[in-house]
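In the present case, backbone shapes were mapped to integers, as reproduced here:
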Amino acid sequence: MSAAVGRAPRRLAGETLVIASHNPGKVGEIADLLAPYRVRVVSAAARGLPEPEETGTTFAANARIKAAAAARAADAPALADDSGLAVAALGGRPGIRSARWAGPDKDFAVAMGRVEAELKKAGATDRRAAFVCSLCLAWPDGAFEVFEGRVEGKLVWPPRGTRGFGYDPMFVPAGFELTFGEMEPAAKHAVSHRARAFAKMIARVLASAP
């Protein structure tokens, strides 16, 4: 998905990129993924930018809302990630409300507990789930592009591991035994939903940057 389909992509090189997030775990993971490229990263929190209300009904729409707001406010390119956990037995929930399930304190131990409680309440034995990520790269003039990634897996209980963030300790990607919370960062970056979306973005706007 892109607002510039059919056009030559803009390139990012030697620029400051605002990460439109106040989540330090997410900002750190994005910074790690961008480390091999000539892009300086600063978080929206470090710039003192407010968090816009996420009124979209899809991951892509919410990513665009956040990226566009940050790009305008900072007068610089901005990258936003909207991602979440989609649980098959819960009809795709929590989905775009994944962060909200963590409550006002953003406590993902609470969020993971709620997922498990909802599965038990539904009497579900199906533990299939997927992490979904939409990245939006926006410029101050209103141009934007969206890149999407997805990784399938299953849920475990109790959660395992202290790495990563969010729902990582209860999610085992397909083909692996470790949860994202147990994996070394480099191993997670190789297979995660965010990494897959990043691969698409890098191929379009960074791979050919001088």
Observations:
- The radius of gyration is 17 Å.
